[in-house]
Automatic annotation (TrEMBL):
A GO BP entry: secondary metabolite biosynthetic process
Annotated keywords: Hydrolase
One Pfam family this sequence matches: FSH1
Record protein name field: Serine hydrolase domain-containing protein
């Protein structure tokens, strides 16, 4: 697809008051690597959002895909277990460690001057799975509050009152989602935070409790070996009409070419505006931003 055309301003704005997006890396990398890999997205998004890059709580070996370029970026980290050699951990401790890592990064950014509202989650691979899981956990608490006639919902695993994530950007995100609130979420379509998600025995039909209704953007590489799992997250775990889909001819990595990047950021701007978040468009608008790709 040809480039839609970009109009990136030459001056980078002060991000102090910009709405904030939390950025969650994949397994076997770290925040610095995710930021470096996302450079083409950053060139656009930094004009509308303050991007905060978070390190996962658990150390692990580097992912084989990053050793050649980012081998000197140790230590490498993960959020969840996906290999048998990763040390076993109980679900409650895993959830607490994830929440602590994210809360610490958010509080550090407050101290660094960030004042904008926390509005979105952007993750790659395991970070995308975690982003979707955080949105689902928030959705469950919100639904509980509605059932109980409350106007505010309980504090979630991050431990910061009043958080309201408006959307998620899921770059190569796999099903299933992780259960980040087992006392509230009972669906068998979710994997425990203590368990390996690789080799998960999927249920025949995802029940309503495990279906994400929050707005999400799904970015799928057509040459990605995990594409079938990305499509399951998109088609089976997300409510139809709440999603945007960007497909591109790439493998398991973050897009850097302008045509794909512009489609991704255009979808982000569109979904942000639909959620009453003001953005500065750095790509030309077009009608297809406003509907999901089939």
């Amino acid at each position: 697809m040809p480039s839609t055309g970009s109009k990136i301003p030459s001056t980078i704005p002060d991000s102090t008051h910009l709405p904030r997006i939390l950025c969650l890396h994949g397994g076997g990398v770290n925040a610095a690597i995710f930021k470096a890999q996302s450079r083409s997205l950053i060139r656009h998004l930094q004009h509308s959002f303050r991007l905060i890059w978070v390190d996962g709580p658990f150390f692990c070996d580097p992912h084989t895909d990053v050793i050649q370029v980012y081998g000197s970026y140790a230590p490498f980290r993960r959020w969840l277990r996906w290999l048998p050699e990763h040390p076993e951990i109980d679900a409650e401790t895993c959830i607490d460690e994830i929440g602590y890592a994210i809360r610490t990064a958010m509080e550090n950014d407050d101290r660094d001057g960030g004042q904008g509202e926390w509005v979105g989650l952007m993750g790659f691979s395991q970070g995308a799975k975690l982003s979707a899981s955080l949105l689902l956990e928030q959705q469950a608490r919100e639904s509980k509050a509605v059932r109980e006639g409350k106007t505010k919902w309980d504090v979630g695993p991050i431990g910061i009152p009043g958080l309201n994530w408006r959307f998620g950007v899921l770059l190569a995100g796999r099903a299933p989602m992780s259960n980040l609130n087992p006392s509230l979420l009972k669906s068998q379509a979710l994997v425990s935070a203590a368990d390996l998600s690789e080799g998960f025995q999927f249920v025949k039909e995802v029940d309503d409790e495990a279906i994400l209704r929050q707005p999400t953007i799904h970015v799928h590489g057509m040459a990605d070996a995990g594409l079938h799992l990305h499509r399951r997250l998109y088609k089976e775990y997300c409510e139809q009409g709440s999603t945007r889909l960007v497909e591109w001819e790439g493998a398991h990595r973050i897009p850097i070419k302008s045509d794909t990047v512009e489609r991704v950021v255009g979808a982000i701007y569109d979904i942000a505006e639909q959620n009453e978040i003001e953005v500065s468009w750095t790509v030309n608008r077009r009608p297809s931003w406003t509907s999901a790709t089939p």
